[in-house]
Design goal:
Layout: E1 18-22, H1 27-38, E2 42-47, H2 50-63, E3 68-73, H3 79-88, E4 96-99, H4 117-137, H5 146-149, E5 154-158, H6 181-205, E6 211-215, E7 220-221, H7 234-248, E8 250-251, H8 252-255, H9 257-264, E9 273-276, E10 286-289, H10 298-312
Parallel strand pairs: 1-2, 1-4, 2-3, 4-5, 5-6, 6-9, 7-8
Antiparallel strand pairs: 9-10
């Protein structure tokens, strides 16, 4: 099921498509926005900072004069901000939601709602956003573009290869008793994959139309790696990360390819996981891959779903999938 040698040039026309992309003003989100706009999509750039979002949109318009971009404020660390964003878009049909925004390996902080920041932004914020926007993605929404009706509406959730070291600490989900910034990051990225698979199962159980899938960018040279530097030995660690990025990382533009494939490729499948197919799955064109065994445990996914509803207060109008025997190969 590989998609080797797939590039942004292989994307079908996105004319008539409306795509919501969180964290669209920098890194992989910025490059994905640029390529989607180049193919004719209307991109709603959901950004924590409207100023930075507008600056990013202006940068894209310098290259693509016809880029159809709209910047909207959405802070994934605030359920109120997420609700306000969803309310502003309540009557708009959406073809693709890309859950891209994220934070990585930062000192322990809490969101406005008291969640550990990495879990709160990377998983719970996107869980809430997706639930609030699910009706926007339903195929019975009117008016629906004829071009869009030939494709599956979809939710693309951006995870990380580091989900493989993650576990879901249900007894300390918000890392209140103990905190390791990398363990918290890995937990949030495992939560992304568990959520993407469980959402797809529930959408299929409801025969609801949209599909849900997960992607990861490999090791991409973005500012994400530098946001966790907290002042202790910062200069040396900054230099070490810069060297690693230079030697090992691919560009943000290449890192955006799995996201673009998941969002646009007609062959992308719900309940799947896509990432770079090259060196150690860190770089190269996208292909379908196998995620960790833990990410495929349906019982863990259901438990995390229920906890996420409890924490965010966001209910999905979707039935739970029929319980099936557990298998590590299951998606």
């Amino acid at each position: 099921m590989g998609s080797m040698n797939w590039t942004a040039a292989n994307m079908p026309s996105q004319a008539g498509q409306t795509i919501v992309l969180t964290g669209a003003n920098s890194g992989i989100g910025l490059e994905a926005t640029r390529e989607l706009a180049r193919k004719g999509a209307t991109v709603i750039m959901a950004c924590r900072s409207v100023d930075r979002g507008e600056a990013a949109a202006a940068d894209i318009r310098k290259e693509i004069s016809a880029a159809d971009l709209r910047v909207e404020q959405c802070d994934l660390a605030s359920l109120d901000s997420i609700r306000a964003f969803a309310d502003r878009l309540a009557d708009e049909p959406i073809d693709v939601l890309v859950n891209n925004a994220g934070t990585m390996a930062i000192p322990r902080q809490e969101t406005a709602d008291g969640f550990e920041m990495q879990l709160g932004v990377n998983h719970l914020g996107h869980f809430a956003l997706t639930g609030l926007m699910l009706d926007n993605l339903r195929p019975d929404r009117e008016p629906r573009r004829a071009a869009a009706s030939r494709r599956d509406a979809r939710v693309v959730t951006v995870s990380s290869g580091l989900h493989e070291r993650g576990t879901i600490a249900f007894d300390d989900l918000n890392s209140e008793r103990s905190y390791d910034k990398w363990d918290a990051y890995a937990q949030s990225k495992l939560a992304n994959v568990l959520f993407a698979y469980e959402l797809d199962r529930r959408l299929r159980a409801a025969d609801a139309g949209p599909i849900s899938l997960a992607v990861h960018p490999g090791y991409a040279d973005t500012q994400l790696q530098f946001r966790g530097l907290d002042g202790r030995g910062t200069r040396l660690r900054w230099a070490a990360r810069k060297l690693a990025n230079t030697l090992l990382a691919q560009s943000a533009r290449m890192g955006a390819l799995p996201t673009l494939y998941g969002a646009t490729a007609l062959s992308a499948e719900g309940g799947s996981y896509y990432g770079p197919g090259g060196l150690a799955n860190m770089r190269g064109p996208p292909e379908r891959q196998r995620s960790s065994d833990r990410s495929s445990k349906k019982s863990t996914a259901r438990r995390l779903w229920d906890r996420s509803v409890e924490l965010t207060g966001i209910e999905y109008d979707l039935p739970a999938p029929t319980a099936e025997p557990e298998s590590t190969a299951d998606r």
